[in-house]
Amino acid sequence: HEPTPAVREAMAWARAHTPPDAAFCDLGGAVDLVSLAGRSVLWGGFIGERDFGYAPAALAARRDLAGSLCRGRDPGPAGMALLRSLTRPVIVMRRASMPDSLADDGRIAARPDRYEPLWHNAEVSFWKVRVP
Asked: Of the residues 6, 12, 72, 94, which has the maximum number of CB atoms within 10 A of its CB?
């Protein structure tokens, strides 16, 4: 699918305003972040799992971490251990087109102790994760 102008704007912002080593959580199309913003993702979706080359337990931790953070929840023990081990910024990308069951701005916004708003437009918002 061709990215919308708003998604292209978001990717340009991410490229210009986030560190090159930032790790993104995006459950709705991580390819945009990699190809347009030049940023990495913590989990590339079920299709991307075959390309990551990680052990099954490591993929499960990445899946848990990305899925939990995008939903405004704390990850399980393996995901939390992964989050605490990362030395680079972790940023959640929320797409307005995603259902709240996959990414929930309301839950994220209700947790200022855990998420810092960075930027948004009509289709995309970025939140920096505060590591507990």
From this structure: 94
